[in-house]
């Protein structure tokens, strides 16, 4: 019964997100209201907010990055925190994405690019993820080192993600963009693990 309930909740979440994306794509993020999304998705406004705390969260669904702090705290004991983060993002890069998912991702990225408000929301989310990661690293490394490491990790992953999005919007196939993303993930974590001097010139 619990499994069925969770599947229904996930279906509702995905339906709301899909309807919101369609409206954002057609009219732009700023022109669409939460009431319109709820009506089009055939759910109560309170139900919508139970799944997504804000209109910005709806628009950023699927592209808002990962719980970096959670990945670090839940890693196996034998893994370093950088190994855990590398493995997670490498798995994402090499995973298969269905065509419908790719189309939705590209549409969502374009919606974000067209809205300064959404870009600001994405920046705020990244900052909170960075702060959470710094918090879990502080006990072992101290506050200053933890803050510096978290900032470098977050900036590196943001650059890798933005490069991936640019490739997709530029017309690269999902496979080609995924292969390039996997290489970028490895390069980013090589630099994080070994320092800037690890980079090889062209």
TrEMBL record:
Residues 10-70 form the HTH tetR-type domain. Residues 33-52 bind DNA. This is TetR family transcriptional regulator. The keyword Transcription regulation applies. One of its GO terms (molecular function) is transcription cis-regulatory region binding. It holds the Pfam family TetR_N. It comes from the Bacteria. GO terms for biological process: negative regulation of DNA-templated transcription. It comes from Streptacidiphilus pinicola. Transmembrane segments: none annotated. The lineage of its organism: Bacteria, Bacillati, Actinomycetota, Actinomycetes, Kitasatosporales. InterPro entries: DNA-bd_HTH_TetR-type_CS, Homeodomain-like_sf, HTH-type_TetR-like_transc_reg, HTH_TetR.
């Amino acid at each position: 019964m619990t499994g069925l309930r969770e599947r229904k909740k996930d279906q509702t979440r995905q339906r709301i997100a899909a309807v919101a994306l369609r409206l954002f794509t057609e009219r732009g993020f700023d022109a669409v209201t939460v009431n319109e999304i709820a009506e089009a998705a055939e759910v109560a406004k309170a139900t919508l907010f139970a799944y997504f705390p804000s209109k910005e969260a709806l628009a950023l669904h699927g592209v808002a990055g990962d719980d970096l702090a959670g990945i670090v705290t839940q890693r196996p004991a034998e893994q370093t925190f950088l190994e855990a983060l590398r493995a997670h993002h490498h798995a994402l890069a090499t995973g298969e994405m269905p065509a419908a998912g790719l189309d939705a991702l590209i549409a969502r990225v374009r919606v974000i690019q067209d809205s300064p408000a959404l870009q600001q929301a994405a920046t705020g989310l990244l900052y909170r993820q960075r702060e959470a990661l710094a918090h879990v690293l502080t006990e072992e490394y101290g506050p200053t080192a933890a803050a510096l490491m978290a900032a470098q990790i977050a900036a590196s992953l943001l650059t890798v993600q933005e490069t991936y999005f640019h490739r997709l919007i530029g017309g690269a196939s999902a496979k080609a963009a995924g292969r390039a993303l996997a290489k970028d993930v490895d390069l980013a974590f090589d630099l994080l693990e070994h320092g800037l001097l690890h980079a090889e010139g062209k």
